[in-house]
Amino acid sequence: MEQITIRKARQEDMETLLQFEQGVISAERPFDITLKDDPIQYYNLQQLIAGEDAELLVAVVGNQLIASGYARIEKSKLFYRHVRHAYLGFMYTVPGYRGRGVNALILEALKNWALSRQITELRLEVYFDNQPAIKAYEKMGFAKNLIEMRLGLGEE
């Protein structure tokens, strides 16, 4: 099996990271009728690479980036036991490497990063109908918590 390395994303990864971002958007578009037409962006990748309260990681085989994910420390709502949590996002794996545990490697590295900053809670959002993603996160120990609901009023 090919050697997979997890490392911090770098500025020179930007072109591929922008492609990964569009992959995430394309995958999520069928689940969200409120998304604007392309082109759109979800992430401030520059800030995720440079930020002290964020860790953007990539999985690499040889010189090829094959996956990404980030953790960003956020203040939790006042009524939670934990003061801060790490919000996870930009979980993307190129199609040819899906199902090989690459996402789990990134999540484990992000979990360790969060623990090194005394963070005891990880959170993420996943679309309700995105069953493959839900199953993958549940396999790694995540549990369903809330369902966000919406009601559109007029044309969108």
Largest sheet: 5 strands, mixed
Radius of gyration: 16 Å
How many helical elements? 4
Shape: globular
Which class best fits the helix and strand makeup? Answer: alpha+beta
Mean pLDDT: 96
Helix content: 25-40%
Can you walk me through this structure?
The protein is α+β, with helices and mostly antiparallel strands and 156 residues long. 29% of the residues lie in helices and 23% in strands. The longest helix is centred in the N-terminal third of the chain and has 15 residues. The chain is globular. The chain starts with a strand and ends in a 17-residue tail after the last helix.
List keywords for this structure.
five-stranded mixed beta sheet; 156 residues; 4 helices; 5 strands; alpha+beta
Q: Would you summarize the structure shown here?
A:
It contains 4 helices and 5 strands; from the N terminus they run E-H-H-E-E-E-H-E-H. By secondary structure, the chain is α+β, with helices and mostly antiparallel strands.
